[in-house]
Structures are given as structure tokens and as C-alpha cells.
Amino acid sequence: MSVKAILGTKIGMTQIFTDEGTVVPVTVISAGPCTVISKGEKNVQVGYREIRPEAVKRLLNRPERMAFEKAGVKPFRYVRSLPADELDSIETQSEINVAMFKEGDKVSVTGTSKGKGFSGVMRRHNFAGQQITHGQTDRSRAVGSIGTATDMARVIKGKKMPGQYGNVKRTVRGLQVVKVDEEKNLLLVRGSIPGAKNGLVVIKHQA
To answer: Which residues are bridge partners to 79 per DSSP?
Structure first.
């Protein structure tokens, strides 16, 4: 199997002790198993987390159900394309699990950060805020002037403004695999990763 990544869900953070007694903060990830649904030129399409039969019609529309049926696999909650090489050696309906990793490997983890809702510029962009003296009463946390002089007379594209904070895709690179538990499909990586508990993540081998 030459697939270079795997899907998983974030369980949470904990800490472990090395043989020397050093405390290591780690994130526990439930990684795989994933099933290969189809193959492309440089990637494979995999499914993760089978859907219970009674929930298939509620979660998937007819074209999605027919696509799984045509591929000869059970419906999955998550379907993603993962990088791979030597595609001739990969068979559809084969399984990908945490055995592809070993202790000491460097990986990158991609997830969706926690959504914080609509936020102002002080929280979203670390603005310092305006003065609170000389009669200033209700504008201390406001964005201030956002326009230009009459020459342009418009708001420049990309201006830092209040808006949605979080809920974006983020990747953390250079994380080290501390432990691999093949029996429980668990992967322990050093440090923190993006997203909330039970959030979907993609773990990729990093050269």
C-alpha cells in the first residue's frame, strides 16, 4: 500500500511520560480504517466511517447512494481524495490503517479550526482599539476609519473587518508520531492539532 495519508477524527489531548521521565503533550487521533473506493492519476478516493443502514437514506441522496453501490462498497460518512503513488499495487476496496505510520515519523495534520462566530476586529485581528478619553464613549472597540480619501472613495478589497472568526481549514506541519496503536487504530502525535473533538482530520506523511 503506497497511500501517503489517512483520515481520522480528533479524540483529544493528554500527556505521556518517556523512559527518561519527560512529560510529552500529545493529541490522540482515531485514524482509519479507510476503504479505497476508486483510483485517480495521482490519488485515491477513500471512505471513512461507515453509515448505519437505517441512516443511509437520511444522510445521502440517491446519486450518492448509487455511487457507493456502483463502487461495490458500503456508504461512508466521509469521502476524500488522498495522495498516493504506485497505483497499480493498490486495489479498490482495500483497507488503509495506522500500520502505515511508525514511531518517529514526521506528519502534517489538516483540520478545521473551531468556529467562534461573528467577532469584532479586536478579537479577530488583534486591533488595539481606539482611545477612551476626550469624550469617547461607545467607539473604543470599533474598527475606525475603513475608507480612503476622495481619490478612491471606496473600501479597499481585503480590508480587515469584523466577521466570521475561525471555522477555516488549517494545517500543522512537522508533528512527530509518538505512538501507534494498531489494535485500537489510535495515533498519538506530539503537540496540538486544529479543530474540536470528533472533528475530521487528514494525517499525511511528511518528507
So the answer is: 47
Q: What is the pLDDT of residue 168?
A: 92
Enumerate the domain spans of the chain.
5-115+169-205, 121-165
Type of residue numbered 177: V
Query: Has this prediction a pTM greater than 0.90?
Result: no
What pLDDT, on a 0 to 100 scale, did the predictor assign at position 161? Answer: 93
Q: Which residues contact 70 (CB under 8 A, 6 or more apart)?
A: none
Angle at 189 between CA 6 and CA 114, to 5 degrees: 80
Does the CA dihedral 124-127-133-134 come out positive or negative? negative
Q: Which residues of the chain have pLDDT under 50?
A: none
Task: Give me the residue label for grid cell 475603513.
Answer: 146
Nearest to 109 by CA among 206, 202, 15: 202
The CA distance from 207 to 199, in Å, is: 25
Per the DSSP assignment, residues forming a β-bridge with 186 are: 30, 181
Place of cell 487521533: 29
Question: Burial code of 168-207, b = ≥16 C-beta within 10 A, e = fewer?
Answer: eeeebeebbbbebeeeebbbbbeeebbbeeeebbbbbbee
The class that CATH gives domain 5-115+169-205 is mainly beta
pLDDT at 74 (0 to 100): 87
pLDDT of residue 111: 93
Residue 65 belongs to what H/E stretch? helix 62-71
